[in-house]
Amino acid sequence: MSALAGEVHDVHREAYWAAVSAGDTPAAHAVAAEALETGTDVETFLEQVVVDAQRRVGERWASNDWSVAQEHAATAVSEAVVRRLADTLPVGSGPLLLVACAEREWHAMPALVLTTTLRARGLDAVHTGASTSRDELVSLILDRGPRAVLLSASLSSSLPRLRRQVEAVRGTGTPVVVGGRAFSGGSRWRTLGATAYADSPAHALEVLGDLPRHVGPAPALNHPGMAEARMVQAGADRIVGDVLAALDLGQLALPPDDWRVVLATHTPHVVDSVASALLCDDASVLSEARDWLGQVVTGRGGDPAAVDRLWDALARELRDFPVALRMLDA
Amino acid sequence: MTATTRERPARLLADSRSAEPRARLAQAVSRAEFLLRLSRSVSAVQNPERGLEALVELLLDDVVDVAQVVVRSGPHHLVCSGTHVDRPATVRRPLVDPLPRDVADTLETGLATEVVLPRTGPARREALRSVVVDDDLAARLELSEVELLAVLPLTARGRTLGCLVVGRDRGNHFAGSQAFLTDLTERIGVGLDATLLVAESRYVADVLRRSLAPGRVPEVEGLQIATHVRVAHESQAVGGDFYDVLRDPTRPDDLVLLCGDVTGKGVEAAVHAKRIRNAVRTASLVHREPGAVLALTNRVLVLEADQDDEFSERLATAVCGRLTRDGDDLAVTLAGAGHPDALVVRADGGVEALEGQGVALGLMDGAEFPETSTSLRPGDTLVLYTDGVTEARGVSDLFGQERLETTLAAVAGMPAAAVAEAVALAVSDHLGERAHDDIALVVLHHEAGARA
Fold first, then answer.
1. Which chain A residue's Cα is nearest to B49?
2. pTM for the complete prediction?
3. How far B240 CA lies from chain A's nearest CA (Å)?
4. Which chain A residues touch B if contact means CB-CB below 8 Å?
């Protein structure tokens, strides 16, 4: 059995998915080893098998077929596989690239896949681990002098923290490339002061060639929502508490799965998304958060009207924040 | 290299001594602006290699056509050079490799010189070789029309820390720009001095830090080990929480586990934590039973506290365990020294605490550390952690034992990495942006199905 380097056998894709969904790390390693032996290259395997499996994991979770724990287990299997693949690749040549995740994002997978893809292309890429703080980033830059830092953010609620990372990296003169689901559409990356944006590992490779060698500090953000962004960020805990206390779900029917808990769990993400929308000057951050929460609630048998009630409670809480109010309305 | 005069260098370096006052003023403003930009760029990029590249690139963009900087950094000379048509790169050369004569002289005497390059022939080659470090660059300059290279000392705090070589294309010299070049080298000297000083102390700190950081955990067939550490002082990157997984070299199935916490944070706590890890490593070569390992470690620490004031105030808690194979199961024996109880997460979701009764380490000579035992069946997970986990401060309460056990129950039977990630995530969400103590977590998962 042989495949072209750019092809993947469906049988591998399905066998891998079976191993991941069973939380079976040795079986997943075995599929990876067999696929590579039959001629699939690392990059193709990552792109068409591992990333595909992660997409399915996300779908299972969103539609409530899987618990958070099952999601964690499946992701851990893929992480182990990607780490082993990365270990088999020779140390790359050329200038160093640091790949990091947004602060407080603990899913390292997207950054790990990117690091491994870069290494498969012969570059010297190093993954700094999940949730890399500004201090850690600056220390690594001072000690190792990377050519660029690549930052991945999956959640739009991470963007205020990502902005601080961008400021820290640019403060050292180092270019910063951002990517990940948090940047879907628009020009959020530009507003946040990133040097470039890449929507896939392949795109990142292209972008790297055109980066300036050194950059100045990130320009200050002065658009009308900035003051509100800072206040929402600083008061996030209190806002979450007040919104949940004021949330009136009234007569909405309660299905077996208690989706009030679901709402409570995700309200911090929504409040952080308000700060993100203000910071990026982009109301679509909030409409995305609203759609997403709607799917989560519906997936758990809840009434989507609950999301409207949450938005009402937020609007009352943020009544003194005119820009935020306009964005919540949009 | 083209022979056409580039606009920006021409403006900054033109000889304006006999020009109109207005033109001289305009040049003075451009020069001041450039020097400001230079200072910013040199002080922003604090990695020496990258800093030199940023500097040389800026010089080549705006002032000169050829540039080379040589500085000393630790056991190396860093050399960065290029022309305005290529990208400069930094190379490290051992100090023992000789530098070209004129560069070496300037580094030694702190005096500037000018090297006039003959038009052609072996004399031109030789003049270039007395200044230019990079052979490839020297060969290219041989074919260029550059007529003069200025060799300028870079000084700060009364010593010469490096040397800058600059040159311009044919017909363009530095007449009328001496004061500007002096300003330029002064600013470069001060900026690079700071960068090199930072790099030197970071290098020392980094060596120490690496010696203090937890070592790699061994790979054991059928057992997954995952760890998670978050230090309180992130800029110091080390803390007082520690762990170790030690394998008996002659019996790969016999592991000694350690997880502990020293009072205090940051580098001082890390130094003490390292001493305890070393004591446990040594003790584990003498005894394999955790109670005996802790008792011997305790004696060492009490002795140290008596003899050395620096350690008299430091308390430490720890849990020490031994893992051996027992048929399909893994036998676990644990002893605690004032430390949070280790938890066993059964494959079915039950969470059990393994009580440790001993007092903290270093308090009392002759203290004893009673042992408890259990079995890890396939699919079970053992979790050792420090109080930074349970005492993580949230909006209104601490993370607590109950949240930890709920989090663990939900990931029962999962791979070790998933368990560690779930706890890390839950604690991080609870903490938000608040300050926290050192946090450490060691997860050992007995794989189900695999040959154990």
1. A145
2. 0.80
3. 18
4. 23-26, 67-69, 72-73, 75-77, 79-80, 104, 106-107, 130-131, 133, 135-136, 139, 141-145, 171-174, 213-214, 216-217, 236-237, 240-241, 268
Question: What was the ipTM of the complex prediction?
Answer: 0.72
CA–CA distance, B193 with B14 (Å, rounded to integer): 29
Cβ-defined contact of A173 to B54 (cutoff 8 Å): yes
Note the pLDDT tens digit of each residue in B241-263: 999 999 877 887 899 999 999 98
Instruction: Determine the distance in angstroms separating the CA of A159 from the nearest CA of chain B, rounded to an integer.
Output: 14
Which residues of chain B are under the pLDDT cut of 70? 1-5, 310-313, 449-452
State the nearest Cα–Cα gap between A68 and chain B, in angstroms.
Answer: 8
In tens, the pLDDT along A197-254 reads 998 888 999 999 899 988 888 999 999 999 999 999 999 989 998 998 888 777 676 5
B428 touches chain A (CB under 8 A): yes
Give contacts of B413 with chain A, Cβ < 8 Å: 23
Binary contact (A217, B44; C-beta < 8 A): yes
